[in-house]
Structures are given as C-alpha cells and as structure tokens.
Amino acid sequence: MLIPFSMKNCFQLLCNHQVPAAGFKQTVKNGLILQSVSNDVYQNLAVEDWIHDHMNLEGKPILFFWRNSPSVVIGRHQNPWQECNLNLMREEGIKLARRRSGGGTVYHDMGNINLTFFTTKKKYDRMENLKLILRALNAVQPQLDVQATKRFDLLLDGQFKISGTASKIGRTTAYHHCTLLCSSDGTFLSSLLKSPYQGIRSNATASIPSLVKNLLEKDPTLTCEVLMNAVATEYAAYHQIDRHIHLINPTDETLFPGINSKAKELQTWEWIYGKTPKFSINTSFHVLYEQSHLEIKVFLDIKNGRIEICNIEAPDHWLPLEIRDKLNSSLIGNSANCHAY
After folding, report:
1. Interstrand relation of 71-74 and 95-98 (parallel, antiparallel or unpaired)
2. Where is the BPL/LPL catalytic domain (predicted)?
3. What is the pLDDT of residues 267-305, one digit of tens each?
4. Count of domains observed in the chain
5. Are residues 122 and 236 in the same domain?
6. Is 228 exposed, middle or buried (0-12, 13-18, 19+ CB in 10 A)?
C-alpha cells in the first residue's frame, strides 16, 4: 500500500540530534520503506546522498524504491566517452548522470526499478539483499529461474541479466543499490550503452556487456508495481517492520534540508564529465582531397574532462604547419565533450 504523508517527524526520528515525534514512534521503530514520486535521476540520486550523509541507521534500515525517465547512469570512476553514445543521447534528450557509487553503466527508464538498501556499515550485506529479492520474485512467480552470481548480479534462466549491483560504503553508513529490469526499452538500452568513439585509452572502470531480458517478457503479470510490492512485503517481513511504502518528494526541503543543492551538484559539468579519470585518445580519419584520401591523425590527453595535450598530424599541403600549431593550441583547455560529436 502506498501512503503519501509528511515524513518530517519520521526523519526527525531517524536523524541524529532530533527528538522523535511520538505519533511516528511505532512506524519507524525498525526502519522504513520509501518510494520517490519523482522520475528525475538527479533528484533521486540526491536522496541517496542525503540519507547516506544525514541519517542514523543503527537498527533502522531503509529500503528506497525509485524510477527514472530515460537516462544513463555511469559509475563514480567511469568514462562517459567510453561507456555510452553521447551523440545519440543528446539527439534523444537522454540525461547523463554520474552516481557516487562504483560499478558499471546502466540505462534507466520507467520500466526499470531501482532499489537502494541503506544500513549501517556493519550490517552491509549485498548477497543478503539479493536473496531477499529472490524470495520476493519466487513469492509472485515460483516458476522463475533467477539466481544471484558472485558478481552480485541476478541472472534469469542462467544467462539473462535482470539486475546489476553497485554500492557505497562510508565511515558508519553504507548503501547497496541495484536495478530490476521489468519492462525496459531493450533496443534503446543496447544502442545507448555502446560507445562509437574510437581510440580511447583509459584506466577508468569499464562496464562488462551482458545479455539482458525483462521480467515482463517472462510473465506479463510482473509489472513494476507488482514487483515493488512483493519486495516491500519481503523486506518488511525480514526486518519486522510496517510493509507500507511511504511516498516522498525528493525536492521537499522541509523533509530533506539542503537536498536541492545536492541535486544541482549532480547536474554540473564538473561532476558528470570533470570527474572522469585521466585518459587519452589516439585515432585517425581520412578526408577526400583532390581525388585522394588523406590520413589525419589525432592524439589527445584529457584530464578532468578537458583537453590537456593536443597533437593533430596532417599533410602540410592540406593543413600548413602554422595553422596546425594554432589549431592544436586553440583546443587545449576545451571540454572534450564539445568535440565528441
């Protein structure tokens, strides 16, 4: 059951330094199940940051459900030029976000459920969370063949990935978040998560391509709502808490003081592109000149998302040395994504 209500006193109970309101004492005694009313990837990632930074989770775990409009989310230590088709994303109006956790790149849309399990650092256990999801899936469809892997993925029929995992472990608090593919756009997913850019050399974390499948393809009754309710029921039973899913607005500063500044930071160029680990590009292309093809070579070193070293090599009769030197100098300091298209 979904319950929209002011969570202010709930969060006062869970936050440090706050005196609990008696009316919510039983509701949040052992934890909460939350669901965002927003489909904005930056706002929902900001909720994760806010809970991780501000809440006392000792004996009070939290499960957070959230879904996003079409977007691509890269891991904390990844390279967007290497992971996705930035040109196609721009054409289709797809948002790009960098999360705080590690792991690989994922495509989000309204057919994908995101689940975040918040606990203390001591209680952090990814496999236990995945087993909980498996029990929920088995409860709604006992015939499903879904298994957890050593990489903390969930595989359907032994080969199709329906869930990937990432996590962030702080000094006292931790969270594990994972996806659950219900009815996502598979064609869009595969085309967006395929970089067309050649010659990239990087030590950034690289995603591992996998075959994927929607649960709805296996059973048309497995809608996002059915799956979220099943996981919520299992989570509540496991933690012995109220199974109600509480709706939250991630832009409400009365519930989450300072959260909008967190969301704004996640949208900045400096965070999305500027946090990319240093990388280089060594590529070439051909141009037609007087009925012959000339090879143009390009070497770039990129740091903090901006061109640090640029060396373009081309025949002098096509691009004179003086002009080439000026071109190389003019590109230094530019953001690399200006030239990815």
Report:
1. parallel
2. 57-243
3. 999 999 999 999 999 999 999 998 899 999 999 999 999
4. 2
5. yes
6. buried
